[in-house]
Amino acid sequence: MDTIVYNDYDVAADSYDRMARDHNLTDLLATCRRVLRHHGTPGRRLLDLGCGTGKGAIPLAEDGFEVTGVDSSARMLEVARAKPGAERVEFVVGDARDLPPLGPFDAVLSTGAVLNYLADEDELAAAFRSTARVLAPGGLFVFDMMDRAGAETLVRAPKVFEHEDGMSVFRAERSVSAPEAVDLRIDYFFREEGEVWRRTTSGHALTIFSPARTESLLAGAGLRVEAHHIPESDAAAPGRREPGHQPETMMIVARKGGASAGSPS
pTM, whole model, 2 decimals? Predict the structure, then answer.
């Protein structure tokens, strides 16, 4: 069996964009835009937490936000800085559990189940406190998390995404080291030259946090939950979850106490 180093995004940085091209990042970004418009923010200063290769940060900067992107992978940020439009974004290496002295921001976004990569509730609480520290009064914290239903969906059946130049396979199994965790393996296959194929493999250890504990930890950090959203571009009215629908992740909107948010962005 292959030896996989888990949660090492430097390994996957060069193939990440192609691997994630047909995943749900486009829908997540569309949902973020809708959420920001619907709920409103005090201003246009935005932090993309766990920004990766800038797939969300750069389009949001083009929307007129003053964007800072933070990621723990220096290699991911190198890829991001090489993209057209990257000059609009300030990219910073940082850890969600202890963010650098940045901000204050009117909104913090975190998509791609970034917070599921934290090992336990202590780390999640630290990330919430760190986020609250860089948020302006009345600022929004918008993030998606995989819940138990989403994890079970991944465990039940692998997912295969075909690309123009290859394919990616998502496979998951329950973790043997922690009862509330899932080990996800992503294999990306692509043509290098002619008929020669290459494969890159990344491992992802995801912790599943209960909605009740997540909300409690948010409250402990001074962040009040306002709504839950389905991360789909064709979802119904904001805050509505369709009966029987089980998305892999659910987007949570929380607001820091203090001044009113004012008009929607």
Answer: 0.80
